Amino acid sequence: MESLASELGATAERMWRQSNALYGVHATIAAPYWSGVAAEVFAERLRRVIEGLRAASACHREGADAARSWSGAMSEAQREADRALGDAQSALALAEASGADAQLRLEEARARARTARDQYETAEETFVRRLDATLYGALPHATMPELEDFVGVFGTLTGVETTARPRLLDLLTSLTLEQLGKLLAEDPKLAQRFWDDPPPPERVASWWKGLSSDLREAWCQSAPTIIGNLPGLDAETRIHANMIQFRRDLYDASIAPDSPQGIVLRDILTALDVQKFSGPWLDYERLTKEQWPARGLLAYNLLHRPPLAAVAIGETSAERSGKITWTVPGMNSGLGEPGRLTGWTDTIINVYKEQNSLERGVDHLVVAWIGYDSPADLTVLEGDRARAGGTRLSHELDGQWAADTILSGNPAPHTAVVGHSYGTTVVANAVSDLSHNVQSVVLLASAGVEKDIPNVGALHVDGGGQNVYASQSSRDSVADTGRGLSGRNDPRDDSFGARRFSSEGDHVHGFEPTDGHDPSGYGTDNGGLFDPHATKGHGYLNRKTEALRNTAAASLGLDNRINGGATNPGNGKKQ
Q: At 167, is the pLDDT very low, low, confident or very high (cuts 50, 70, 90)?
């Protein structure tokens, strides 16, 4: 037994030394020495081996300790048994002299023998359990097919990465669906790579256009987290893939209902207006299309912290021959709190309905986008979140151009972008970093445009400042405070060059005023000093407000339908 304990201890020490050596290798292959998806896959696998070796080393040490403990228990049990036997013999020899005393000593000897037996059996059970864990539970079992899969995927990855910057589209075109599925299962963070730095949307659209309908469906089923969020793909495809993943997540028992992810799942159901249906494995995709207006989950990233999502409202056919508007909210809009996506979606439905009333017979698609980590406190004065959100939004807007022109054959796509509050900071960052122009930009109650975007000339918009609009109610002091404390520029300034329209209301023409900062007002008063807000029905995007009418008209490029008109840079008065 001592020999076995020594052997287990030596193996534990050897495994620990091996794990330390592999840890050194892991550090050596890290960036900047080796980068790319192949490097990340190899490093992740190596990390698991290191963890496995260290766990195995610990198990072997426990096995050695158990062997020594059992060996000691056997020796002690033997000694105790010998002592008990001697006492029993003495008790029998003294029986004639003192029967009562002999009987007592005999019972004590029997009890000590039973104790020795119990201690021996307990030590034996502990030893068997720990030895079993050492021999069978130390390292995860890897079958030869699994190892061959890893070698095949890794070989493909190293073959496609010929540049320092990973070419993610090569993963889609080089790996089999089965290989990519296993790669995603091993490293879910890979899907986040596609979100953060997606392939060029023109290449994505061209690749997708060349696939058969059966192969497209196979991609949606095998990699919905990638396909559903891939700029350059059409809205129908993205919605279909995202609903596949959404339904899987909805029935995933590992997602706690009160976790941010669980809260977002319920929020999505309500935002899509399908929470009222019940039953096992409902076809939520079909049910969302049957609503009016139709809705779809255009973006869905439950792996991100916080989760991110976007709801498309209206007709996806707008990509072929209509007009599309992306809308971006400001602070305190991040997902993970109840009702965040539902609230923004319900507000943006007002934009969709107003657009339809202004331009009948034209297909409209409006996107309620919460695809960035919005600020919730004084971080609103900083620009990091707006830059990160702007980067993702720029991918989406360039992807919209590719989906419209390459996949849908639209010779003259119309894409507008509307931002509110801090969302205008995100929008300005995004539109300053596009490969393809958008057709209209609307900045409502702006928290300010970064100083490295000095004027409308830095924005990629058809017609330049002619199609960039800004508005703020005179009763909105929050936007003024945000710009003042952050030092960002007011897009209404003459030097920036946007065109102003009114949010003041016009009772002659039946339009309500905006009386606070919110996109959708609430309550009967404007709150206090530390909680100012618009009243019910008097937010920027509430129904029947002048701000909503003018936002919808400006986003569609209908200058003649802007109530009171839009000014050139100047005094901002209606004309």
A: low
User: CB–CB of 426/372 below 8 Å?
Assistant: yes
How far is Cα 267 from Cα 340, in angstroms, rounded to an integer? 7
Give ∠ CA 451-453-458 in degrees, rounded to 5.
165
Contact (Cβ atoms closer than 8 angstroms) between residue 325 and residue 418: yes
Rounded to an integer, what distance in angstroms lies between the CA atom of residue 256 and that of residue 245?
A: 17
pLDDT per residue as tens digits for the range 25-56: 556 555 554 555 555 665 666 666 667 667 77
Which of 67-76, 261-270, 543-552 shows the lowest per-residue confidence on average (mean pLDDT)? 67-76
| Whole-angstrom distance, CA of residue 128 vs CA of residue 531 | 66
In a domain, 441, yes or no: yes
For the chain, percent of residues with pLDDT exceeding 90: 60
Residue 116, token pair as written in the block: 């020795």
Do both 81 and 159 map to the same domain?
A: no
Q: Are residues 318 and 403 in the same domain?
A: yes
Provide the domain limits for residue 153: 144-187
Shortest CA distance to 70 belongs to which of 7, 139, 130, 151? 130
- 500 in any annotated domain: yes
Taking 80 as the threshold, does the pLDDT of residue 409 lie above it?
Answer: yes
Q: Of 187, 222, 256, at which residue does a domain stop?
A: 187
User: Is 194 among the domain residues?
Assistant: no
Q: What are residue 101's phi and psi, to 5 degrees?
A: -65, -40
DSSP characters over 102-151: HHHHHHHHHHHHHHHHHHHHHHHHHHHHHHHHHHHSSS----HHHHHHHH
Domain count for the chain: 3
d(CA 220, CA 227): 6
Q: Is the pLDDT of residue 67 over 90?
A: no
Contact 456, 468 (CB under 8 A): yes
Half-sphere exposure of 17 (CA within 13 A, CB side): 6
192 lies in some domain:
no
pTM passes above 0.90: no
Spatial distance between the Cα atoms of 566 and 501, rounded to a whole number of angstroms: 5
